[in-house]
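Methods: example folding runs. The two proteins below were folded one after another, and each record is reproduced exactly as written to the output file, sequence line first and structure-token line second.
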Amino acid sequence: GNPYSLRIEDKADHIIITHNKFYYAALELKNWRRNHLIGVQNPAVKMVMIDEIYDNFSWGLADPVAIRNFLYYVDNYWAYPLGYVLLFGGGSYDYKNLFENPEPKNYIPVFETGDYVHFQALMNKNPCYEDFFTDFTGDTLCDIPIGRLTVVTEGEASDVVDKIVKYETNNLGVWRNKIILIPDDEFDKEGIDPLYSFHVPAMEEVSGVIPDRFDQNKVYLTEYPLVPPHSKPEARAAVIDALNKGALLGIFLGHGNFQQLTHEMVLYSPSDIGILENDYKEPFFYFGSCSVGDFDRVEKESLADLLQKKERRGAIATLACTRTSGYNSITTLGKQLVINLLESNNSITIGDGVFISKQNTNFGRKYAYFGDPATPLFPDSIGFQATISSETLTGGKEVRIDGQTDDPKFNGFLFVSVYDPIRNIVHPVPNKPFTYYYNLPGNSTFQGIFNITNGNINANFFVPTELDSGNTGRISLYIWDNSREGRKGFDSLITGLDDTLSSDTIPPEIEIFHCGKLLEDGMTIPNNAEIVGVLEDESGIDITGRDNRSIYFVINEDYIDIKKLNEHFFYDINSSTRGSFEYALTLDTTMKTVELRFTCYDNCGNQAFEVLNLNVFNGEEFRLSDVFNFPNPFKETTYFSFNLSHRSFVILSIFTITGKTIYKKDMVCEPGFNRIFWDGRDADGDRIANGIYFYKIKAKATDEAFENQRGDEAIYRGKIAVAR
């Protein structure tokens, strides 16, 4: 190659360094960035092949230092300083593929120091520095925002570009007002963790600098029971649920390694990442932990880089340590990330926020950024003013919200979240003279969406009675359209006072639907019915989830297994009095009848009941399967066996090769295994001649719920021979 092709006068705001294997995916990202680089008009985006860099800066030899030398040249000799660098391809410490991996990862090499060869020392004492490639001052911290996409196949490359583009395209929504905080607890595999006093207090420091306009989703492991020997399945479910609901930012502080978070494995890679369902609602996630970003192993991916590159789910970008990490500075770095990404009113990218935070803390040399550093976090981009009718949230009374956006032509949506007082938690550490003191968000008392037309903001909600007394109630407002979003919060609101003059004594109305039909006693539903419950009351529905105020239902009076529905309930748009929930039943397939007992409360404490006694049928897809004829060929008699998913009317027909029906038998068969006997005689009772015949088994479901519906019938055709 030409050793001077890059030693020219040129310009670049963003450089993508990639391998020929990923040319087309990288080209797609380049073309996207040419029109979508925040803060830059008509940006210059360059895509450079790694082999060309070797030809220009390392005499054609594969050398990671060549990348640094090329970027130094660009930053100093091209038209203006470089803005962002993206390494588009995986890398590992096995530069020469001595492991004989059939698909080696070293498309864009990593930079490591140390020469230890024993495995434990290799991973602990051979640091991996991604910042090296843009470190031009010798402090091993990047001087230009840099990130990596650790793709190793063309499919991965295409998926991750699609993920980035869709994240940045009309992808705003209420999920972007959430911040996930996950601190480790006091336990390790041996008992009490030596660092028990660190993680929770550290996360409280981070929580304290998050602006009030954001909603914090605190998944604190201390709130979940330990299941011997050392697991917390409820905490794992809560972490996965938080990710599935989406968030703008996530922060973890605690123990971890390349495949798991915490000793209790509340997130395990790759299995848990594979079941995530947060389609394109991906946060930027910071892991203040050891080795979660240990991506340069030969045959395994790290949790952090897999979370970023997993198609349509996971995280849009991650920041994680490639080796062990000191625990004191991870808190400082976390606080800086919050300040630089959330408190800034300027439009900055995630890479900018990481770069500034590392520089401000002089920490994070071994922390790798996975993702495109030019991806924006979309901070507040539309301003608005709003007022509330009362700073005292009086139980049973209405609160109104009025306001105006800065742009009088703004048409979009307003999401209102209301919370009762913060919960102050006191958690003693077992067998230690130490106690955690931390705060958890109050219960949600209202969540609703309202239209904004021509910039006018108008909304209302009702306050539940019997809230705890305090002055930490909170309202957060989030507005958005296709391309802009804005936030505002009201805190220090007074709670615990009720309207003694309220005249509402009428309970809510409850209506339960299936397939658009209002359910009544005696009607029939499938065992896997998806039901919709519509709840309405002039004072609104209590959604706090308090034990004495929950929305729930029970099946056949089984109060041990109460189905809480608060998180399934959503108010209708522009309403604070009417909403609905959806729930998929999973009744036993043998169940013939069921009693469903629903209850809810309005915000004045009036309780409503709805009891339905229904018939049940097996709602699985109708199937005729495992059809088998034996013996075949036969001399005198034979059997036809098969399985049915439902009780069915079955017809067995035997035909000659010309299509003439010579025998037919019909019967009602039950679900499961069935067998039909045939004595080899035709309809007249005569034995049939030797030869080839055809048979047909036709099954039609007899359940009344299948009447006039498609999919209630199945047919199987086969060949049979008579040979005497």
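Second run, written to the same file directly after the first:
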Amino acid sequence: MKITIRLLSILILSGYSLTCLGQEEYGGLTKKAYIKLSNDAQNYFDTDNYRDALPLFLELSKIDPNNTEFLFFIGACYLESTEEKLKAIEYFKQCTKDPEVDDVIYFYLGRSYHTNYKFDEAISAFSRFLLSAREDDPYRAESHHYIQMCNNARKLIKDSLHVKIINLGPTVNTQFPEYSPVITADESKLIFTSRREGSTGGMIKAFKDYAEDIYISQQVDNVWSQAVGIGSTINTAGGDGSVGLSADGQKLLVYKDSEGDGNIYISHLIGETYTKPVKMGSNINTKAHEYSASLTSDGNIVYFSSDRKGGYGGKDIYRVQLLSSGDWGFAMNLGDNVNSEYDEDAPFIHADGKNLYFSSKGHNNMGGYDIFVSKIGNANYISKPKNIGYPINTTDDDIFFVLSASAKHAYYASTKKGGYGNTDIYMIQMEGNEKIGNVITAAGSDAEIETQSAIVMMRGRVLDEVNKLPVGAFIKLTDLQTSELVGVWNANKADGKFLVILNPGKNYGIHVEAEGYLFHSENIKIPKSQTEFKEINKEILLNPVEAGKSVVLRNVFFDSGVTSLRQESHTELDKIYQLLRANPEMVIEIAGHTDSVGSDEINNKLSLNRANSVVEYLIERGIIKENLVAKGYGETKPVSSNDTESGRQLNRRTELKILKTAK
């Protein structure tokens, strides 16, 4: 909370003024120099530049040590400082000795006690102010709020979390402010905002501060690389802030205020470079300010903060869904379970899509912005939020919280003693082996919320099977039970890397496609009962579309001993249909294979009949018979040992092989 001056001053002063001088010189200064010094100090203070205002007020106080106004401004500057907040108490206490000082000084004294964890003294100071405050005094409601925050803080500190809060160090943090961290789900990439020397926009003279730029750091062997500017396509002279990042790092959400109304933009990673940000739709951006945003792992929902009209307080959090047309639907306020009469900001939706983290100045917070979590249930129901606890939350601002897919590590921006300067970026983890995400989301029972199982993170690289070079492919995820397309992801063309989040209780068909290549298929079925995070690393090799190349059809299914196709097979069969429609002269072989269980005669017949079932489906769809060959190989071409169940499962398969392409 920035210092607010009541009318021209919060103080009723007896003969004291910054410019009313009773003599020609003060402390060796001329009257002109003294007036300039006092005016400079006041101007810095009025523009929230407390860092530069403080030494000037200290100099003025040396000249006139009994000036209550100087004492107040010094206390106010210390209250807004990074590491010297404790000093504010003594200066505000000195102000109370002036019999003509306004009683609002007790409000600021209470604030200084509160921020320094002296809650009993803070409550006494706020209560002293309330004794004389008018009913319509705006500081009256704030005082009651601060008293409640003191009581909240006592409870939260009593139930402290046993966590480690680790500064990310000098490769990320500097003497300048670093904040708004966003990460990929696997923690391989960190993107953040900083106002540091060398920024694209340089020094903003009016604020004596550097313009915002976005920086990026890579994590290799648990060490963060030296952060560098993200590039000229993103960073501009007007200032740019990182606010959201997709789970795979391919989409970056950027805050820009070039039009004076603060909007959310989106940029895409093409190879090694993020594209020029494009302003998101009018259902997200308005004439009001939109401050921060977060994408779900499938990219279909955005949660964002805005101070548009019709909300519950200052900034509220909204939700918007991607329509089939590719446009964003109407924004929906998340309601009073999440939004309060105060500010809510910095939403982050975890990769599981079920835990929404955000910062709030309301609810049961202990001071400034605190970080909260709400659980998302069916029909968009959202639970009442839980304060994630002390010492992550403090009496100061704690904001921009993000959590890895594994829930082992969280990252946020905070102002703490012992940091590198101003706001720094920190990592949070439990002292033991417990996952931080499991602890901070352990909210009380809520009948509307189902228990969420752990997610699966599948990541790897897509490469050309022949030369092993990266391929910029599309990864398409389908729910085989409903044939619904869950989402489309990109494998980066520069390194072939991809990352996909899979939720429990689904049977997924995964198809990897790239121009000039045969599609590749994977089948991953995740039980609803899964309780632990799981990571799958997979290297996918794509074969070029040419004679002799083949692909295993992992999403073609038959019941045991049966030749009729199951419904879940249709997504994969339609991929074959599309391949043949795009290549009308192509001739393919559909080959059935079995394990070694059963006689050769039975296996040969079963494998041939299953291959024929695929061929018949394609003929019914309109593919000419001459382009299709069915073969049954039985157990004669195993790809793994038949001595184990896992090996036999690999041997039971259907394959597509290109026999002929266009001349």
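Comment on the second run: Confidence is low (pLDDT under 50) at residues 4-21.
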